[in-house]
Design brief:
Rossmann fold, 9 strands, single chain, two-stranded antiparallel ribbon, seven-stranded parallel beta sheet, alpha/beta, 8 helices
Amino acid sequence: MRKLEGKVALVSGSGRGIGRAISLKLAGEGARVVVNDLDAAPAAETVGEIRARGGEAVACPGSVTEDGFGERFVGTAIDRFGGIDIIVNNAGYTWDGVVQKMTDEQWQAMLDVHLTAPFRILRAASAFLREAAKKEALEGREVFRKVVNISSVAGLGGNAGQANYAAAKAGLSGLTQTLCKEWGRYKVNVNCVAFGLIRTRLTQPLSDGEARITVEGKEIRVGIQPVFIKAMEDQMIPLGRAGTPEEAADAVYLLCSPESNYISGQTLVCGGGLKW
């Protein structure tokens, strides 16, 4: 039997990259998935792939930073699948700049997407989680649910040019540890996965051409200098290479599986041994 059979998972930012890989992994283990992406088309593609593989999924497109998104995301899971078992807060992007050149807009955008949005989603889910846990306790059942917040080694040790991103991810660690304490009574395991260098469109070499993403009408430059990628792979990552989205998804799955029922408030680094 697949280990997540019958579970319901919400995965934000899952139309592309790591989020897509997470959705496919959880669905492959039996979870029914609510797929979110800023754009409707990638969300629909992920849903289609899950269904083509015999799984169940539904799309909930839109920006995680919109007012009311958390309630809509959570409501989709309850209305379509009858509950919530797993929440993966994955949506996000980078908007880099050294501190003296960073605008207030850049700073706030990272806090909004990486910290405020997960807070709002989890707040929206809290009523269901509390009531479900109380009902199960009265029935003498112990049912564990999972929250996995996606962080970064930048949030653990900082990263030049990413004061906004690193601060938001560091804040996410505090949110994780606090909800571990608040929600333990409801049998909710709340953990973080901090990624190192994972191959996605946000970390592609700049030599491949200037890459840009569009976020709510703004074009944002993304990518990493090839010399920095080489230095990381040759000198900083003991396994000698960047990770794949599928390997990143495997780390998230570990904290969604029944084997993590007595693990909470922790940050798992998925970085090939990278130290920060």
